[in-house]
């Protein structure tokens, strides 16, 4: 489940926010030969499009494989990467990208438009390969080579958010290395030993089960990186990762459990960092079940949850109450003035009574003689189990019985996401910083796509299409605020909270983008280690 897995990527260096910028730091104040020690939870696959290369691989691949577009370090708007500029056609059915000249691959070969066309035509759009995240580009028909430094993305429908998705784990692959492979995503010598990218660092050594060592690429188009190497140590256990950052063996860790911070707060060389992200937790109610098609029921079940208490209990206060799928991180698009659902059990009971539910002899609500019982599987991952058990207790207090079934993670994903064999479940989505939420809400994405609650609303579909057609930011703002209001009223998902990212860094490290994880790694050439 793409969106879920991305929250806990297992990259302990995931959140490199809050560090010092290079501004005001003189060259003699940092060590150009320093090594930065990060961690990942398992052996990575060094190919951004290989299926299953997610939690252990994404951020390393972001360093190795540049993208056409990367995020602006201040506001997450699309900024130049391998492409220096782009323009959409008047009819919205194509985008033309002007490529950066003079870029070379790690083996010295020149980067050209042929590499971009190969990455998308032969890999991403080749359905036989099943490339990771290929669904993000379902509206792309083909990529045309205009000339060696220009490509055109030809679309089958308007796709105004294309630049955002091109900045979202969409690294470009080398045609001259992979074009002859039967499957460019399964070349072991590339994926597990010697990948060739255009990023600020290249792979020098990969010792399975131990570490991956990257060294700076001095011919990087953005200028030679300011540190000599980055070592990703393979450390599966988060407790061990925390112990190693305290001892100085690691320079960064991300913190999945705030309870692990106890030893950090007493160490003057370590700083606890907190930042927001484009992610939200939710309860999905499977609307193939007729009980949940009544919006009053959905609203009641949200009113029954004390989300502030859940944030305090589950994530130790590191989060804010969610109002919809567009997080506050997207400052230009986030709409705060939408319907709110305060904790109000009495209001919840009134809404359920209006929907025809009345108390039974054992306190469980009844309708047409049937008790209000909900099958609610949950996976053994992160915050899911404790959060689900809290939901169970809150719903019990209003007469709704949730039968919680704790499952192994992969079995849970198969049951809930693939087969849709659930009535309610608590999960999360991590998405690109674009207001386009079509993959998670469109009627066409129900039952088999990322529309987990199988919510279908023609009025919403029309608004989503309008958003994809709009190319001016001011038009997009108006449309997506209308979308947020509709979603807050209708509650396709019961929105819980936007979690904060918690990470720990050694004070010797700086130069890292503050705004979010992907952006920090996209600008790795700017990282430095103070002497």
Automatic annotation (TrEMBL):
GO terms for molecular function: peptide transmembrane transporter activity. SUPFAM superfamilies: Periplasmic binding protein-like II. Keywords: Signal, Transport. Residues 1-27 form the signal peptide. InterPro entries: Peptide/Ni-bd (IPR030678), SBP_5 (IPR039424), SBP_5_dom (IPR000914). Residues 78-447 form the Solute-binding protein family domain. GO terms for cellular component: ATP-binding cassette (ABC) transporter complex; periplasmic space. It comes from the Bacteria. Gene3D superfamilies: Dipeptide-binding Protein, Domain 1, Dipeptide-binding Protein, Domain 3, Periplasmic binding protein-like II. GO terms for biological process: peptide transport. Belongs to the bacterial solute-binding protein 5 family. This is Oligopeptide-binding protein AppA.
């Amino acid at each position: 489940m793409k969106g879920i897995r991305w929250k806990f990527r297992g990259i302990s260096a995931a959140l490199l926010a809050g560090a010092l910028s290079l501004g005001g730091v003189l060259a003699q104040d940092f060590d150009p030969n320093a090594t930065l020690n990060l961690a990942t939870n398992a052996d990575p696959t060094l190919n951004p499009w290989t299926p299953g290369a997610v939690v252990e691989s994404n951020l390393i691949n972001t360093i190795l494989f540049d993208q056409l577009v990367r995020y602006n370090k201040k506001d997450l708007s699309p900024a130049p990467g391998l492409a220096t500029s782009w323009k959409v056609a008047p009819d919205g059915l194509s985008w033309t990208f002007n490529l950066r000249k003079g870029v070379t691959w790690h083996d010295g070969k020149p980067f050209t438009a042929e590499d971009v066309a190969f990455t998308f035509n032969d890999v991403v759009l080749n359905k036989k390969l099943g490339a990771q995240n290929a669904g993000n580009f379902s509206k792309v028909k083909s990529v045309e080579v205009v000339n060696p430094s220009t490509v055109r993305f030809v679309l089958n429908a308007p796709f105004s958010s294309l630049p955002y998705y091109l900045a979202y784990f969409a690294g470009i692959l080398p045609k001259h290395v992979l074009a002859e492979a039967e499957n460019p995503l399964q070349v072991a010598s590339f994926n597990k030993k010697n990948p060739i990218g255009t990023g600020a660092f290249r792979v020098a050594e990969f010792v399975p089960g131990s570490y991956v060592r990257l060294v700076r690429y001095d011919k990087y188009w953005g200028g030679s990186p300011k540190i000599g190497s980055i070592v990703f140590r393979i450390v599966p256990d988060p407790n061990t990762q925390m112990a190693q950052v305290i001892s100085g063996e690691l320079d960064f860790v991300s913190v999945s459990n705030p309870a692990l911070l106890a030893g950090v707060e007493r160490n003057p060389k370590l700083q606890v960092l907190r930042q927001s992200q484009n992610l939200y937790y939710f309860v999905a109610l499977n609307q193939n079940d007729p009980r949940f098609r009544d919006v009053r029921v959905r609203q009641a079940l949200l009113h029954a949850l004390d989300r502030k208490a859940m944030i305090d209990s589950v994530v130790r206060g590191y989060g804010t109450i969610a109002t919809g799928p567009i997080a506050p991180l997207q400052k230009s698009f986030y709409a705060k003035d939408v319907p709110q659902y305060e904790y109000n059990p009495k209001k919840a009971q009134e809404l359920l009574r209006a929907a025809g539910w009345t108390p039974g002899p054992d306190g469980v609500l009844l309708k047409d003689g049937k008790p209000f019982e909900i099958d609610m599987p949950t996976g053994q991952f992160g915050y899911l189990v404790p959060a689900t058990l809290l939901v169970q207790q809150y719903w019990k207090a209003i007469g709704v019985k949730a039968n919680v079934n704790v499952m192994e993670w992969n079995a849970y994903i198969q049951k809930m996401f693939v087969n849709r064999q659930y009535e309610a479940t608590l999960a999360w989505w991590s998405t690109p910083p674009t207001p386009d939420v079509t993959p998670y809400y469109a009627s066409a994405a129900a039952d088999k796509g990322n529309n987990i609650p199988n919510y279908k609303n023609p009025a919403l579909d029309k608004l989503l299409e309008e958003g994809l057609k709009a190319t001016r930011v001011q038009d997009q703002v108006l449309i997506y605020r209308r979308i947020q209001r509709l979603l807050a009223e209708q509650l396709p998902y019961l929105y819980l909270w936007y979690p904060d990212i918690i990470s720990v860094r050694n004070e010797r490290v700086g130069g890292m983008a503050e705004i979010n994880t992907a952006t920090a790694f996209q600008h790795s050439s700017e990282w430095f280690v103070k002497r």
